[in-house]
Amino acid sequence: FTSACNMLGLAIQDLDEGKSQIAHGETVRETANMISFCADVIGIRDDMYLGYGNQYMREVGSALDFGMENGVLAQRPGMVNLQCDIDHPTQSMADLAWLTEHFGSLENLKGKKIAMTWAYSPSYGKPLSVPQGIIGLMTRFGMDVTLAHPEGYDLIPEVVETAGRQAVESGGSFTQVSTMAEAFKDADIVYPKSWAPYHVMGRRTDLLKAGDHAGLKSLEQECLTQNALHKDWHCTEEMMKHTRNGEALYMHCLPADITGVSCKEGEVTEGVFNKYLIDTYKEAGWKPYIIASMILNRRFASPDVVLENLMKKGARRVDA
């Protein structure tokens, strides 16, 4: 977010609860308006509490509308969702931009199969927002989206329902299967990524809000034990052979849990990860540009004209 703002010439103010009056009882409405007097855009990341992060962002948005309607704010700042409990739009759109670059156009993505699968990790509590963001966005572009996870590792039901509806509307498809191998079969793109079960994130939220550290520790051990039952959900060279011609594009939001490198056993083997190392770097490289684009599109009705004028102003003068 900071890099994106730097590219646009914006100054950054980094705020958390310790730097605001929230701890002293200030409401969301007050906080939103106070920080907006001199702000053009607000970026919020709130993915810790299932059922609260996205809701909080919407409350901030409503507070900004309130301030604007009542003449408190000279302008209504834009707001960027940097990750919440439901979605990770800056990541999924960076992924979409990379796929568009890799396959040549958005049109070329139609009919391509992308496998969004759970993968084993030696940690727990990873947000649901990345897989939900992928199935929620890619089903809008006519892709054949397959979701796979072990029993019990469900995503938020409403998100899954939305993905199915969008697939029908876009002419693509949305399928759920129960094994990684089935998801990888004839896939053009694979996205093996660990996440915590939906019901676990709900329990974790309650424990976090209650400050129950002992309960959190117990839940962690329970989940790690459950994760360990599914170590075969592992993106290996053998698993990749199930994909289309054995050469599907591997994707990850990074950092990946790489077996033998960042952990003893993880989401992907070192061999597979290194084969697609440059691809994952290019995928990640889109993120600041996506955020900058969000900010620019929110601020100007015709951002293409703004950019064109800026490029003209920056043209080097040539002597006659």
From TrEMBL:
User: Which GO MF term does the entry hold, naming one?
Assistant: amino acid binding
The record's top EC class is transferase
Sorted keywords for this record are: Transferase
Superkingdom as given in the UniProt entry: Eukaryota
Please name the InterPro entries in this protein's record: Asp/Orn_carbamoyltranf_P-bd (IPR006132), Asp/Orn_carbamoylTrfase_sf (IPR036901), Asp_carbamoyltransf_Asp/Orn-bd (IPR006131), Carbamoyltransferase_YgeW (IPR017702)
Whether Transferase counts among this entry's keywords is yes
Matching Pfam families: OTCace, OTCace_N
Gene Ontology process terms (BP)? citrulline biosynthetic process; L-arginine biosynthetic process via ornithine
Query: Boundaries of each Aspartate/ornithine carbamoyltransferase carbamoyl-P binding domain copy?
Result: 1-100
EC nos: 2.1.3.3
Cite the Aspartate/ornithine carbamoyltransferase Asp/Orn-binding domain residue spans from the record. 134-293
Q: Which family does it belong to?
A: Belongs to the aspartate/ornithine carbamoyltransferase superfamily. OTCase family.
Supply the name of the protein. Answer: ornithine carbamoyltransferase
Species lineage: Eukaryota, Metazoa, Spiralia, Lophotrochozoa, Annelida
